[in-house]
């Protein structure tokens, strides 16, 4: 979306939004089973990475998930979440205390 917010899940719980920020910290996740993917935005190669990402879960609450596995574009930094990772992210975010303005949670599969 052009407004900088992307819906990343809307299952049975509240909608989960991902802010269009550049990842704060990222490092390569090396695997023998790495999947070769192309970015849907610019066509460049995407790599498996681990990074920290912010999610807006309500009008007043932002959650930063640390050490989140993603596929990230080498060129434009667009990222994708694998289905099992997205399901786990939704589970984590559904349990967030929305009375807090900011919460930092380490991702654990």
Salient structural properties:
8 strands; disordered N terminus; elongated; 1 helix; eight-stranded mixed β-sheet; 41% strand; 109 residues
- Major sheet summary line: 8 strands, mixed
What is the average of the pLDDT values? 76
Q: Any idea what the radius of gyration is?
A: 14 Å
- 3D shape: elongated
* Low-confidence parts: 1-34
Which H/E pattern describes the elements? EEEEEEEHE
Number of strands: 8
Distance between the termini: 28 Å
Specify the number of helices. Answer: 1
Structural class: mainly beta
Task: Provide an overview of this structure.
The protein has one helix and eight strands, in the order E-E-E-E-E-E-E-H-E. With 109 residues, the chain is mostly beta strands. It has one domain. Strands 1, 2, 3, 4, 5, 6, 7 and 8 form an eight-stranded mixed β-sheet that branches. Strand 1 and strand 2 form a beta hairpin. The longest helix is centred in the last third of the chain and has 12 residues.
Put the structure in a nutshell.
With 109 residues, the chain is mainly beta. The chain is 11% helix and 41% strand.
Detail the topology: elements first, then pairings.
Layout: E1 5-9, E2 16-19, E3 26-28, E4 37-38, E5 45-56, E6 62-73, E7 79-80, H1 83-94, E8 102-106
Parallel strand pairs: 6-8
Antiparallel strand pairs: 1-2, 2-5, 3-5, 4-5, 5-6, 6-7
């Amino acid at each position: 979306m052009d407004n900088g917010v992307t819906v990343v899940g809307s299952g049975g719980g509240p909608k989960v939004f991902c802010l269009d920020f550049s990842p704060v910290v990222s490092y390569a996740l090396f695997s023998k089973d790495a999947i070769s993917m192309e970015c849907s935005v610019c066509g460049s190669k995407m790599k498996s990475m681990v990074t920290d990402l912010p999610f807006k879960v309500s009008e007043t609450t932002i959650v930063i998930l640390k050490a989140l596995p993603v596929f990230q574009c080498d060129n434009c930094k667009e990222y994708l979440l694998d289905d099992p990772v997205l399901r786990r992210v939704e589970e984590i975010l559904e349990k967030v205390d929305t009375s807090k303005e900011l919460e930092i949670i380490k991702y654990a599969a």
